[in-house]
Amino acid sequence: MTANDWQPMMYQMYREIFRGKPMPFAYVDLDLLDANIQSILKRAQGTPIRVASKSVRCTAILKHIFGASTAFQGVMCYSALEAAHLSQHGFDDLLVAYPCWHEDHVAAACELIRAGKSVTLMVDSVEHIRHLDALAAEHGVMLPICLDIDLSIDFPGLHFGVWRSSIFGVDDALKVYDAAAASSCLRLEGIMGYEAQIAGLGDAGTGLRNRLIRLLKRRSIPQIVERRKAIVEALQARGVKLRFVNGGGTGSVESTIQEKVVTEVTVGSGFYAPGLFDHYQAFKHQPAAGFAIEIVRQPKVGIYTCLGGGYIASGSTDANKQPVPYLPEGAQLMTLEGAGEVQTPIVYQGAEKLALGDPIFLRHSKAGELCERFNSLYLIAQGKIVDQVPTYRGEGMSFL
User: Fold this and answer.
1) Could you give the CA distance from residue 227 to residue 215 in angstroms, rounded to a whole number?
2) What is the structure's pLDDT at 136?
3) Which residues on adjacent β-strands are paired with residue 165?
4) C-alpha angle with apex 182: 181 to 188, nearest 5 degrees?
5) Rounded Cα–Cα distance for residues 11 and 133 (Å)
6) Which residues are within 8 A (CB) of 263 and not within 5 positions of it... i.e. 6 or more apart?
């Protein structure tokens, strides 16, 4: 039985679990999180999994995930300063997935390396190589680097993917590698390619848009496989011994693990399973994380106005970036108002008897950004609160 099968009774259960707790608050249901962990392990079929910390942003939850299986190996960080913070909590094999430029941030990575930690910084240009080489020389360390390769696909009139790396093909990769090979303080350790158009784009449903997305995904995958393979083989022909070849994301695990050159896949959003991840055809994870806002007004029958709630996700501005009303089942945002800065009207005409002071439970559209709104997460298991743990924000850490 999934959470959706017994969703009608979940509202009463959650309302009782959190009765008396000040709102708004965020929570993680550990029973559902553990179900997602097992689903992810099954989908990966033994391939090592690097955990994308930007989708979690809570040290305690990261420790919970890593404690579940030795298949979780390494963290994909989003900031060098975040890597330093996680290192203090015992994490290692830290891949910073986005280019690090500021001298203080590079210095933080160098200090970790000096302390014996495994930290790898991302590059995709000769400028990155020159800059990092000079700073690594100043700090007297050999700095591991990873090439970020672009895996977007160009169709007639459509760029299918994201604008990310300047390394599109073999020639681009070798140009950056040659600069790294000529440097004195850099060592190429890995390749990363994020197939965003497969991993991060929902495709469930029978509508024309979703059928087109599925078609474009099918046509993209062979090109992705060939491009990644060609770059890896070209580097190996130069004598490069790669420690890892990273690919994928929650939405592309099944296709990424089929690539022979890939040694690990990345998963992040699949642990919390936010609103946008309800729309994938190949898998279904459980809604493990959410937040509650308090009903403080009832302007008319069937409309309940709550305090707060305007936790909008990043990306292109559209309705998909709003939080998703979750419980009670059938609750909806109003089209003209949406989720507001200090109040959010909710339309609900279901069977639950709602009153002032009752909660409305919502789920963030994306995963990690929820934790940027709250200092802590309530952890619940087997129908009760078992802990309250700080998010990055609650630890006083705001990295981006």
Assistant:
1) 19
2) 98
3) none
4) 25
5) 55
6) 47, 48, 242, 244, 245, 246
Q: How far apart are CA 96 and CA 123, in angstroms?
A: 10
Distance CA 377, CA 18 (A): 12
**What's the token pair of residue 171?**
């020639």
Nearest residue to 224 via CA among 264, 188, 259: 259
pLDDT tens string 245-280: 999 999 899 999 999 999 999 999 999 999 998 988
Phi-psi region of 11 (alpha: psi -120 to 50; beta: other; left: phi over 0): alpha
- Residue 128 exposure: Cα atoms within 13 Å on the Cβ side: 25
Q: Pick out the chain residues at pLDDT < 70.
A: 1-8, 200-201, 203-204, 206, 210
94-96 and 72-77 strand pairing: parallel
Q: What is the pLDDT of residue 34?
A: 98
Indicate the average pLDDT of the chain: 94
Please answer whether residues 277 and 251 qualify as being in contact, where contact means their C-beta atoms are separated by less than 8 angstroms: yes
Residue among 172, 89, 101 at smallest CA distance from 130: 101
């850099």: which residue's tokens? Answer: 186
* Domains annotated on the chain, with CATH: 93-267 (3.20.20.10)
